[in-house]
């Protein structure tokens, strides 16, 4: 039952409609459907994890900028002031504290 071929072309035989190819049989197997379901659920979980990790990183970063950076700046300023006082005391000849 070959299809009518045009001049110069090759025709393939028609497949019977009730027989499935081996790829179709494999793609319909329970192992493949289970694997697809597991992959889908894994990707959803990974997406949620990535989103929550991003939120945690945002909270950590902004907290660091608001609280820790000014503290570091103030500690540096205090250290510079102590160094300046120590330098002035050594120049004036008074004993350091």
UniProtKB/TrEMBL annotation:
- Return the GO cellular component terms, semicolon-separated: mitochondrial outer membrane
How does the protein's chain sit in the membrane according to the entry? Single-pass membrane protein
TM segments? 56-73
Q: What is its main location?
A: mitochondrion
Cite the Pfam families for this sequence: Tom22 (PF04281)
The highest taxon in the source lineage is Eukaryota
What GO terms describe the biological role, i.e. biological process, of this protein? Answer: intracellular protein transport
Q: Which UniProt keywords apply?
A: Membrane, Mitochondrion, Mitochondrion outer membrane, Protein transport, Receptor, Translocation, Transmembrane, Transmembrane helix, Transport
Spell out the residue ranges making up region: Disordered.
1-20
Q: Where in the cell is it found?
A: Mitochondrion outer membrane
Report the InterPro entries cross-referenced here: Tom22 (IPR005683), Tom22_pln (IPR017411)
Q: Which PANTHER family match?
A: MITOCHONDRIAL IMPORT RECEPTOR SUBUNIT TOM9-2
Family the UniProt entry places it in: Belongs to the Tom22 family.
| Name of the molecule in the record | Uncharacterized protein
Native organism is: Trifolium subterraneum (Subterranean clover)
